[in-house]
Design goal:
Layout lengths: L5 E7 L3 H17 L3 E7 L3 H4 L16 H9 L4 E5 L15 E5 L8 E5 L13 E3 L3 H10 L4 E3 L5 H9 L5 E5 H6 L8 E3 L14 E6 L3 H7 L5 H16 L8 E8 L2 E9 L7 E9 L4 H13 L2 H5 L2
Parallel strand pairs: 1-2, 1-3, 6-7, 6-8
Antiparallel strand pairs: 3-10, 4-10, 5-8, 5-9, 11-12, 12-13
Helix pairs in contact: 8-9
């Protein structure tokens, strides 16, 4: 591709984290493709507007992507940057026929983090501590480990949630490490990564998805410069677990794939539809050349333990 000047429009949510993530992607694309200028277009999403109630009551995390995808289809922007964990696996709110996830950049830390001034780990939190999270997945796994804790809903952007913690509204809040690191808000004095053995992350957590129109070959090619094949494959496997479990915005499902050399390790967790234990776990380790067999094995184990009945309540 000739190094001619070209401008493309990037749609981003108005939140601090979305603007930072989008700015990072824009800067990297401009570096990889000399002559490219990326214009940031802020699109207000339903997920950012609803701040006082759990998102799963209104359509789930797809509310963070709906308006961006509508702007793409309308031609108002050329591509969008999503936190991949916010992209619905089943029942998207916008038809996907004309849209494409053109690239998945290298993943940031996929783990969750505990932010608290009262303990460095879930096990150290005082009995009855008030823990804020808007995720049924996190809630179920936390209660499986510490049934004495009071897990309560929390909404708002990363900075808003941390302010509520500082103001004493919560004894602890659980956030994604990736968001804390990308926003520069990670503070090792008050925040600790939670082991995936205790709290398995959401499918796609820590990864970004660069989405454009299928028919826009030029933008697809540019976005492809940032694709990381390892992250792409891991997220594909994680999302396949959710798809085959028919997971929706009410489904507490966790999945994490990791590639080590020529092998892939896949782990999954399923809990009750109401976000409470029991918590069912499964894992598989297979050759990378037959990665989908890891999904088959994990699903077989989950189903044998009654996962579908648990998810359907």
């Amino acid at each position: 591709m000739a190094n001619t000047t070209m401008q493309i429009r990037l749609g981003a949510r108005g939140s601090m984290l979305s603007r930072l993530q989008s700015g990072m992607v824009a800067a990297e694309l401009e570096k990889l493709r000399p002559g490219l200028k990326v214009e940031l277009v802020v699109v207000k999403t339903s997920g950012d507007t609803i701040q006082d109630r759990p998102l799963h009551e209104f359509g789930g995390k797809g509310l963070f992507t709906k308006e961006l995808e509508q702007a793409l289809l309308a031609g108002d922007v050329d591509f969008a940057v999503h936190s991949f964990k916010d992209v619905p696996v089943t029942m998207p709110l916008v038809a996907q026929d004309e849209l494409l996830m053109a690239a998945v950049p290298a993943r940031e830390d996929a783990r969750d983090a505990l932010a608290s001034f009262k303990g460095r780990s879930l096990k150290e939190l005082p009995r009855g501590a008030k823990v804020g999270t808007g995720s049924l997945r996190r809630q179920s796994q936390v209660l499986a480990l510490r049934p004495d804790l009071e897990v309560v809903p929390i909404r708002g952007n990363v900075d808003t949630r941390l302010r509520k913690l500082r103001d004493g509204e919560y004894d602890a809040v659980i956030l994604a490490m990736a968001g804390l690191k990308r926003s520069g808000l990670y503070d090792n004095k008050a925040m600790t990564a939670i082991s995936v053995d205790e709290l398995l992350p959401s499918a796609g957590q820590g990864a970004l998805a660069l989405q454009c129109r299928k028919a826009d070959a030029q933008t697809c090619e540019i976005l492809g410069l940032m694709n990381d094949p390892v992250t792409y494959k891991c997220v594909e496997l994680e999302r396949e677990v959710v798809r085959r479990l028919e997971g929706d915005c009410h489904s507490p499902i966790a999945a994490l794939a990791e590639i080590h050399g020529d092998r892939v390790q896949l782990r999954a967790v399923v809990a009750g539809r109401d976000g409470h234990p029991p918590v069912i776990r499964a894992a598989a380790d297979t050759p990378l050349s037959n990665a989908m067999s890891a999904v088959d094995r994990v699903l077989a184990s989950l189903e044998a333990q009654g996962a579908m009945k648990l998810l359907r309540g």
